Amino acid sequence: MVVTFIILHIYHFKLLSDIKPDMKSNLNKNGKVRNKDHRVEGWGQSSSEAIKMIISGIINKLQNVHMLDRSGTYGIAPDLYAPYYIKSTEDVSVVTHTTSEHMEDLILLSERWDGPMSVSVFTYDVDAYFTIAAIAYLCVCFEKVRINTQFHIAFPLSHSPRNSDVKDLDISCNMKLKDFLHNRTRNYEIKGLEYPHNMLRNLAIQHSKTSYIFMIDIDMVPSSSLHQEFVDFLHHHRHLPSSNDLANTVFVVPAFECSSEEFPFSKDVVISLWSYGVIRPFYIEMCKKCQKYTDYDRWRKLEEEEDLDIGYELEWRDPWEPFYIASRDVPLFDERFKQYGFNRISQACELHVAGYKFAVLNNAFLLHKGFKQPHKFHETKEEEQNRNRLLFRKFKEELKTKYPNSQQRCY
After folding, report:
1. pLDDT digit string (tens) for 147-192?
2. What does the pLDDT read at residue 245?
3. DSSP string of 173-204, one letter each residue
């Protein structure tokens, strides 16, 4: 009887998912874009011609950009592709980072987040030009990516982009990204290179065009309509006496892991699937205490409200690393943290010391694709974590000097 109920419930969940727009509406049964390589609406040319045009434009921009990050070890090229307009600066942008391996995740993310996105892509050597091809493909073949997404590129000077015949690739919207990407190396396993999460996050934040940012990982998807709901939330609270607190508050979005290939759109479905193990709190196997201070049980028990609002406020506690929406003016991430460990905790710690409040949103949530499991991580994870743990201790001592009048500490 219980098994039957679970099956019926998941079937109901699938029906709910099917009535919402997602990336499948653009794909055929084989996962390829339905559109044959005829003329692309609005472009006046075939998709392969449009992709080649964008590739050439981005390469020309890249060759004329001579900017470095603050350490002087990375070349950065902001806004290599950007929408022609932003509807309003009083808005919120998803800010995220990736390598070419995970750029495919932008397709689903762009369908679930109907608003601006600022994306930093880490690349190197010949891979840079295949990354550029991937940007062009996504912008031509997926309208939501094209109209909403800024792309920025960063590369180590020791592995600067090298010439490639990528302009001669025959790429069209009838292909998938993996059909033409040159290198599918995982972020942490690029031979001889460290993945600079925090530099990439800062690049995406600093070149976003909106007053608020939503800091997430690229392989996550938000609850349905969260973009518009948060914009409405901002407009409503602007007229309240407490409006001055908005800039000093980070709005926490509870994060979950989902084992299903279908992602729920509403909180009630998340709660139901959570009860049957299809969904669980984020990082529960990897680092339970890194997320437990979100207080998932309290979030689950909140009375149902029609509008997005603050469910409750929490005091930050080490080592909580929540995903959040906040003012674009929040303290930036410390770029010394690279590879695995402490890269997000350090920034959350600084937010606390700087006096920011942490407010959990009542109806919002994030879903990570698949369960995070310890045995699926790269071989050097422990070594990197131990190194960054020492850096974090130093970082916490430095905050005492940076915020001498603060009574808050990262304990």
Report:
1. 999 999 999 999 998 876 666 778 999 999 888 876 555 555 566 7
2. 78
3. TTS-GGGT-S----GGG-TT----HHHHHHHH
Q: What is the 8-class DSSP label of residue 332?
A: P
Residue 263: name the closest of 110, 106, 369 by CA: 369
The C-alpha angle with vertex 265 and arms to 262 and 270, in degrees rounded to 5, equals 80
Q: Give the model confidence (pLDDT) of 279-293 as tens digits.
A: 999 999 988 999 999
CA–chain centroid gap for 89, Å, is 20
pLDDT tens digits along 79-99? 999 987 666 778 999 999 999
What value does the mean pLDDT take over residues 317-329? 95
Mean per-residue pLDDT over the chain, rounded: 85
The two three-digit tokens of residue 306, written as one number = 């029609």
User: What are the start-end ranges of the E strands in 56-107?
Assistant: 67-68, 74-81, 92-98
State pTM to two decimals: 0.87
d(C-alpha 98, C-alpha 224), whole Å: 23
**216 and 98 in contact (C-beta within 8 Å)?**
no
Q: Report the C-alpha gap between 35 and 38 in whole angstroms.
A: 8
Phi/psi at 392 (5° precision)? -65, -40
Nearest to 50 by CA among 171, 177, 182: 171
SS3 content of the chain, % helix, strand, coil (to 5): 40, 20, 40
Q: Which of 392, 292, 344, 326 is nearest to 97 (CA)?
A: 344
Output the six-digit token pair for 251.
């709005």
Q: How many Å is the Cα radius of gyration of the chain?
A: 21
Which residue type is seen at 340? Answer: Y
